[in-house]
Amino acid sequence: MPQALNPAVDSATAPLIITQLLDKLGLSYQAHSEKAGIPAAQRLQAIMLEDSIGAMLLLFRHDQLLDLNRLEELTGRKLTVLKPERLARMLSPHNLNTLPGLPPLTNSPCTYDESILQEPSVWVESGKPGVLLELSSADFKTLLTKASCARFAEPLERIRINLDRPNDDPAEINQAVKAFTARRIQQRLEETIEIPPLSATARKITKLRTEPDATIDDITGVVETDPALAAQVVSWAASPYYAAPGKIRSVEDAIVRVLGFELVINLALGLALGKTLGLPKDHPQQATPYWQQAIYTAAVIEGLTRAIPREQRPEPGLTYLGGLLHNFGYLLLAHVFPPHFSLICRHIEANPHVPHSYIEQHFLGISREQISAWLMRYWDMPEELANALRFQHDSDYRGEHAQYANLINVAVGLLRNRGIGHGPDREVPQELFDRLGLSRDKANQAVDKVLEAEATLRELALQFQPIH
């Protein structure tokens, strides 16, 4: 009877239905607790797609991106990712929480990328979160006798994402727009991309930010001319998250007693800019809603900034603004490339193991971070903000205003590991904490505080969701 290989090495156990299946087929395996360091070329990604004909199981490697366009060319089918609730209904009768990469377990046809058997062993999801199964490639091949082989995945190493080449941004954005519009490219990028003008409120706040003698009365006056913005600022201050004593009765009250001048001017600017571009109707399944993620990230960064020693601390209001607008490029991609934004959403769903930068680079030629940083400069926003958005995913960034980008990197990474946001979990490098003067414990405490107030912050985020 087949047994797990070296069972004493790891105490992880696979679900009963999985062990019974492998035992019945006479296959040897090892159950492992998920950990860093598993070669991406050996780890398989399983995804269930469907169309009007039915469902299909896809298997490919973690160092690859599933290209739905290429799959459509091969199969003649326009497949999209199975809705989470439908996948849950398929898995729950077997007490499985994740989709195992074992074709005999499903009644659906299976297609696998031809490269998955190139390594000596493969690691697949067991159906139990945090537990992977290791099988020899020879044994795994016996599970693919009824599956079809194809070449539909793109190696990530061929996708040259631009994390740290800002000088290439204008040319790459221009090229992307040229590729996706029939319009003749103008000499100046700002004449090519149809960006709505800043609102009057945003223009006033931007001007106020640069005035050294600006007072609380000045910002109060600007905010109060926009009733919706005024209501949001008061709601923010009155939120249980800030636990302000007594009732908040006015914008001035919110500034003086709770939020402070710097936070309010940057909060107001972030809200005004965020509303310049509407939320797209399409979005990836299971993605954290835009404003919810923005507010969680800003709140975590607020806590992280306070935890940095005072002599090293960057400007708190600007770090908060960076958190609030960190994903602004998502709105911008939907605005600039509307016919192709849905394609990006479908590929984000089909590639949960891949950061969005690879997907956007592969299909558009640019990332949301590049185009959002360009727009911040075009709108004359602070250079700290432009750099924060541009370099937020480069954990090695040490250039000008690095603290602002590094703080977003830490906040997004810590939230992602708690299930907020989209994309693969990732370990935040200790070197990044050290560079910011932060301890990992204090950073996790800042996240804990935000998640303890999750219901309160979600309520604030609902103010920005479109009403259908």
From TrEMBL:
Family matches, as InterPro entries: HDOD, RNase_Y/CdgJ, UCP036888_HDGYP-like, YbaK/aa-tRNA-synt-asso_dom_sf, YbaK/aa-tRNA-synth-assoc-dom
Sorted UniProt keywords: Kinase, Transferase
Transferase is among the record's keywords: yes
This protein's record includes keyword Kinase: yes
GO MF term (any one): aminoacyl-tRNA deacylase activity
Residue intervals of the HDOD domain: 195-395
Descriptive protein name: Histidine kinase
Organism: Pseudomonas marincola
